[in-house]
Design brief:
single chain, alpha/beta, Rossmann fold, 5 strands
Length: about 160
């Protein structure tokens, strides 16, 4: 059985997350397992601002995705603590992570006879970018109801 480990903040779920999870499940194969680590708030804050959603909400989101076979808490931004515990065959990394961190991961995976697969990072599929765009769009705008600006709210139909 092949075990693939990937990890996420998952504060805003987007297509990039789903694609990475889908790739992880494909690498694991039909009899393998895709295990997802969700970073605690403290782990996230090692490099990024505190998530908006609670850890419990983010874990529930991950558990509901069909490409995920198991969800675990990740206590540090680095996946290495969980990697040593889970001992996956494959660790998925993002090309957005520092090369020195990826090399450390490769060394640990080599110790446990696994390997690292680096998935390309697509900036348009970034939770940070999405949050920035939401903030930009909401600056100076009044709440004009659902839909596009200027649209009137829908009537409730009895």
């Amino acid at each position: 059985m092949i075990i693939v480990y990937s990890y996420y903040v998952l504060d805003i779920l987007h297509a990039g997350h789903l694609r990475m999870m889908k790739n992880a499940k494909a690498m694991a194969g039909p009899d393998g397992r895709s295990i997802v680590g969700i970073l605690t708030d403290a782990a996230v804050m090692e490099k990024k601002p505190r998530p908006v959603l609670s850890l419990e909400e983010r874990m529930e989101l991950a558990e509901s995705i069909r490409y995920v076979d198991g969800v675990v808490v990740q206590e540090t931004y680095s996946p290495l603590q969980n990697v040593r515990w889970i001992r996956p065959d494959i660790l998925l990394e993002s090309s957005s992570h520092a090369p020195k961190d990826i090399e450390k991961a490769r060394a640990v995976m080599k110790e446990i006879q696994g390997r690292v697969v680096v998935i390309p990072y697509f900036p348009d599929q970034s939770s940070t970018r999405i949050k920035e765009e939401i903030a930009r769009l909401s600056k100076g705008k009044k709440n004009e109801g659902p839909g596009q600006p200027g649209m009137k709210p829908r009537r409730k139909v009895d």
